[in-house]
Amino acid sequence: MARRKQRLFTIGYEQTPAKAVLDELEHAGVKLLVDVRAVAASRRPGFSKSQLAAGLSERGIGYVHLRDLGTPKEGREAARSGKFDALHRIYTAHLKTPQAKEQLDELTSLVTTAGPVCILCYERDHLQCHRQWIAEIVEDRNGAAIENLAAPQL
Fold first, then answer.
1. Element (H or E) spanning 138, and its range?
2. Mind listing the pLDDT tens digit for each residue in 18-66?
3. How confident is the model at residue 70 (pLDDT cuts 50, 70, 90)?
4. Which of 39, 42, 46, 78 could pair with 87 in a Cys bridge, judged by C-beta atoms 3.0 to 4.6 Å apart?
């Protein structure tokens, strides 16, 4: 019997209300949200770690924070400045750290065992976010099918 391909979603919450993100995750059938922000705090209501985990729990969706898959401070500064080549260089070097390697292994395992999984970060456009690079690594490792979600904006 052929093994079913795992699904790996990504989503960013920039300019999006928490309810819209939660609705989008629930509609997609996500079972586990993996937060890949280095700092799981937000000025946006509903997106700080404890608020987000509580909102997800109300919908039967699990929450895991893999902070070592977050972008280091200098990478976040490069992204804010629009220096995406620098962001890519900084993040690629970061992924070689033992902590990031361990959490990539954990994420790969979660996608296989706890799916459907969704990776969350701030940036709305997955092409300008490190979560896309993470998703592509997981796709290379286990063949997961990537789907980028986008909830309605404010």
1. helix 130-142
2. 999 999 999 999 999 999 999 998 988 999 999 999 999 999 999 999 9
3. very high
4. 78
Supply the DSSP symbol for 72: P
Report the alpha-carbon angle 101-105-109, nearest 5.
Answer: 170
pLDDT band at 5 (very low <50, low <70, confident <90, very high): confident
Q: How far apart are CA 130 and CA 69, in angstroms?
A: 9
- Looking from the CA of 113 toward its CB, the CA atoms found within 13 Å total 6
The CATH class that applies to domain 7-148 reads alpha beta
Buried b (16+ CB within 10 A) or exposed e, 46-75: bbebeebbebbeeeebebbbbebbbbbeeb
The contacts of residue 27 (CB under 8 Å, 6+ apart) are none
154 pLDDT higher than 80: no
Q: Is the pTM of this model over 0.90?
A: yes
Q: Residue 4: what pLDDT?
A: 61
